Amino acid sequence: MLVVSPQLVDPEISRRKLERQVKEFQNNAARYRERGYWIAFQEGLNVYVAAAARIPMSIGPIPFPVVTACVRFNFDNFDLWAPSLTIVDFFTLQPSFPLVGAMEFAEGEPLNLLIGQHPQTQLPFLCLPGVREYHTHPQHTGDLWLLRRSITSLSSLAEQVWMLMARNVVGIRLELARNTAGVNLSLQLVQAKM
User: Fold this and answer.
1) Cβ-proximal residues to 79 (8 Å cutoff; 6+ apart), any chain
2) Which pLDDT value is given to residue 1?
3) What global pTM score does this model have?
4) Distance between CA atoms of 13 and 16, rounded to whole angstroms?
């Protein structure tokens, strides 16, 4: 579901502010890519960031790379509003559900910050301070974006996505089941505390 937002900030101002965000990101792009995340595509006020995990394999010394998450940051009305974060399919760039959760480990227990549906967009969203969906959610009305905007950037948000959805991917769970229809093979990415 696409939510049309009112125009509150001149798009040219948002574009210039986004240019600064992208330039800051590009200044460290080699380091970010080595870690496992990069700007995959940019169009207008939308920046698509992909995050990948290195999954160790027993068949050789080279880890198996897997794109575990791709997100679209939308900078409409930036920086009066926080950037919007939508999880998208890496190939189609359409909203989708990711292969992994957004796992944070508090006191050793996993907590998934990926929530099923945002009340406004009806899409899965990352419950993360610094993104529009977090600050517009009814449970976070007291946590204002305007108090966080000076410490939030495209780089810091991309880092959070990578940490929650890629860095902690440690393997693949493979399940093979035989039934009357034949054999079913199921693969699932496994996340753990890092």
Assistant:
1) 9, 14, 17, 149
2) 45
3) 0.86
4) 5
In a domain, 145, yes or no: yes
Q: Measuring CA to CA, how many Å separate 42 from each of 63, 92, 173, 193?
A: 28, 14, 34, 32
Give the Cα separation of 103 and 160 in Å (integer).
11
Report yes or no on 187 lying in a domain: no
Residues of the chain with pLDDT under 70: 1-5
| Cis status of the peptide bond prior to 79, with omega within 30 of 0 | yes
CATH for 114: 3.10.110
Q: Record the tokens describing residue 86, joined without a space.
A: 């939508």
Range of the structural domain that residue 15 is part of: 11-168
Tokens of 92: 């189609």
Residues with Cβ within 8 Å of 193's Cβ and at least 6 positions away in sequence, in order, are 105, 108, 110, 168
User: If you count them, how many residues does the chain have?
Assistant: 194
Distance CA(119)–CA(67), nearest Å, equals 28
What letter represents residue 135's amino acid? H
Q: What is the mean pLDDT of the chain?
A: 88
In sequence order, the 6+-apart residues with CB closer than 8 A to the CB of 150 are none
The pLDDT value recorded for residue 98 is 86
Number of domains present in the structure of the chain: 1
Distance CA 165, CA 62 (A): 21
What residues contact 101, with CB distance under 8 A and at least 6 apart?
110, 112, 113, 114, 165, 191
